[in-house]
Amino acid sequence: MSSLFLDTLSGRQSEKRPIWLMRQAGRYLAEYRAVRASEPDFISFCLNPEKAVEVTLQPINRFGFDAAIIFSDILMVPWALDRNVRFVTGEGPKLDPMETGGEITEAMIAGMAPRLTPVATAISNCRAALAADKALIGFAGAPWTIITYLLEGGSSRDFATARRWMWENDVRFDRLLDLVSQATADFLALQAEAGADALMLFDSWASAVPSHLRKKVVIDPVNRITGILRDRGIETPLIGFPKGIGEGLIEYCNETELQGVGIDHGVDMRWAAATLPSHLTLQGNLDPLSLIAGGDAMARAIDEILDATSGRPHIFNLGHGITPETPIEHVHDLLARARGQVS
Ligand code: 1CP
After folding, report:
1. In the 8-state DSSP scheme, what is residue 51?
2. What is the 250 CA–ligand 1 centroid distance (Å)?
């Protein structure tokens, strides 16, 4: 059986839009909160294949989305690289901040795979449990976004520590970018080999990179990663999501070999549809906060995205992750409208 999601990602346009939502397995679902409460340590939760599969399937069972995204986290790579990653309730992720860059070595990268085996197990079990017409997405953080967590030691408002380190440590920064690209490619390869049908690279904090450094810090690492994957014979389609880079999307799309690009809600979808290379499938870009209000305003925003992308392959999604406050009813409304079941 074919999959609407994979067909669309391969460049085929159809009347029906495939739909999934970033962070679709998450706290807005009561059934997610119940499983989460049974595993207070977030890393142990991600490393428990049975629970990871259960929460990955929850939004598919409830809403019938066209794709599932494996329940895991971009911070599993820093965790596997011994950066003492932990999630502090109410504060978010914490890591031991790197100082010299020498904390990560090639030997550590080579040793990551056994620690990440539970993610591979979850993917193969999840693929076996999913219907043939539902795709399974594996993912990783893009090198720059991962580097912000490594250097900041957690989330950040302006990424001042990471940006300053980048300016002050030219050679060490290049080495770090290269090592993290290698680690990212390894994590994606492990997921593709376990059965992920598509891969997504989240560069959630790409907007913090000064524009003239985008090529080196955001774009070149994508090519390094796709090069490693292709050299290993992995042809799994890849979606890039360089959040917040605006006009930088042109260079990002033209100078990489991705199959899809995630568009955040700050970008005009009409501009994206008219400007970005036509071989790429667009994904996005409803403001996640519109789902809290719901109603007519959300309906108009959905229609606008459908209309703007009517001339090319498009996967409906949000411009960033769904928020915990989202009412379930509004997700049903979004699905019905984006699938053309209401007018
Ligand atoms: O306790 C909880 O339930 C915490 C919330 C949560 C969830 C549901 C975290 C902590 N991670 C996840 C899972 C997750 N993370 C998925 C699973 C699949 C799905 O989408 O359903 C995915 C794709 C991610 C990716 C992720 N993690 C990103 C990139 C995407 C994005 O939203 O920009 C980032 C930046 C993270 C880091 C992270 N994980 C969790 C937190 C609180 C954070 C920090 C975010 C920040 O720095 O602001």
Report:
1. H
2. 27
